[in-house]
Give the backbone structure.
Amino acid sequence: MLRSVFRRHAAGVAVITAGHQGRPFGFTATSLTSVSAEPALVSFGISERSSCWPAVARAEYVGVHLLGEHQSELAATFARSGADRFAPPTAWREGPEGVPVLEGVVAWLVCRPVARIPAGDHRIVVAEVTAGDPAGEGRPLLYHQGRFGALRP
């Protein structure tokens, strides 16, 4: 029932990235939340079964990328199990603190995890914002009824 109800809840789409053992990792998240302004904190959920969990569990810093409506393919790539998420056409660079930063996003943050709280089969990661860039262009990508979409004008 929970999944059926939340399919009806529109959510913004983010990609969370981390580096681990010299490799970039990342996944699509619709659970991103602003937690606090002072200090600046965000949170997101990640399944403990996710291939990215070991990287996020050990990461000193993570990247949080807000996707634009033009990036539904990027969101799908980072949601796809077994995909080489950082291979072309994904454009990225190493950002502050060595965090993989995706190009062309609406905005991005670099955050330091301060808590990884068990929550059922997931962990809720609370992270303090240390850097970022809100200057990207575009309107936000949304997730609703199992599909990526855009805001109506």
